[in-house]
Amino acid sequence: MDSLGVLLVAPMNAYLEQELDRRCRLFRLWESPADRRDDYLRAHASSIRAVVPYALQGVDAAMIDALPSLEIVSSFSVGIDRVDLDACLRRGVRVTNTPDVLTDDVADLAVGLAIAALRKIPQADRYVRAGKWKSKGDFTLTTRFSGKRVGILGLGRIGLAVAKRAEAFDCPISYHSRSEKPFPKYKFYPNVVDLAANCDVLVVACSLNPETRHIVNRKVIDALGPEGVLINIARGAHVDEPELISALLEKRLGGAGLDVFEDEPFAPEQLFELDNVVLVPHVGSDTEETCWAMADLVLQNLEAHALNQPLLTPVI
Ligand code: NAP
């Protein structure tokens, strides 16, 4: 695929960048100053046939319009909420993502965040480092994860992998999705407030779309309640953040474990002061193994496209 002009929107993965550079004609958007990006796109518009975005920086209608030779968007992510699919459809631009290869890592992190939030692992770590174990004695008692009722919002690939892991901790599983799934041992709730009212740990694992934006609102948070813990490993915009913050401050919600935020990389600073939250910087799929596999999938999709073969993981 030597002749394929590929625009990488950000330096998302060194291996991917190196392979794109080796195998294609690579354009690095970030090398152009932010206020000169339009000029950069105009200058290379006729050569760019593919764009590689990722979870934080997508492809909007303006970029699609600016690239008349664009044929394919191959995202280094499974979530394609920042790719304008309607604009791609209108222009006949193909779109691929990276499903499955990241599922285990994101599910591992969801369970890790739940345990970290309930058992206060980061707080306990800080307690030891600050010398407080020696000066103040034993750390506070915490709450167990084993046996807790786990509710999953979005029983897709990642949601199901979270459910399987939580089952191993003897957690009863319930869920809400657009449709009921063929898993009779998992209880289906047709609405998310009822799901939240009937679980101790609510894990957000659905895709982001107009229906799921701020799906975790005040009603859902209050239904989860003062003993409940919210885990979000999907997208920040699923949660109404000001409502989450006030519920945590007012102890209407027990705690939270958050990998994602609405305005990344800016996590709300009010969360930094809270002792009942665990915060990580959108690292759900960020292991060496998974990022390598995601990069290979992006490359394989581009190669298939260049050779006019079926795409491996098409979205459209
Ligand atoms: P998936 O298999 O497509 O699952 C998405 C789930 O969302 C499905 O169960 C779907 O329900 C549900 N859903 C969609 N719209 C809904 C609605 N209006 N109401 C209720 N449920 C709805 O995707 P996945 O591979 O599991 O990934 C899920 C999401 O995780 C991605 O979209 C991405 O945003 C996020 N993610 C985050 C990270 C990270 O680093 N933190 C990494 C990878 C992915 P139905 O099955 O009933 O349609």
TrEMBL record:
Keywords, sorted A to Z: NAD, NADP, Oxidoreductase
Pfam families to which the protein is assigned, alphabetical: 2-Hacid_dh (PF00389), 2-Hacid_dh_C (PF02826)
Residues making up the signal peptide according to the UniProt record: none
Gene Ontology CC annotations of this record: cytosol
InterPro entries: D-isomer_2-hydroxyacid_DH, D-isomer_2_OHA_DH_cat_dom, D-isomer_DH_CS1, D-isomer_DH_NAD-bd, NAD(P)-bd_dom_sf
GO molecular function list: glyoxylate reductase (NADPH) activity; hydroxypyruvate reductase [NAD(P)H] activity; NAD binding
Keyword Oxidoreductase carried by entry: yes
Domain of life: Eukaryota
Domain spans labelled D-isomer specific 2-hydroxyacid dehydrogenase catalytic: 26-315
UniProt family annotation: Belongs to the D-isomer specific 2-hydroxyacid dehydrogenase family.
Record's protein name: Os01g0228600 protein
Source organism (scientific name): Oryza sativa subsp. japonica
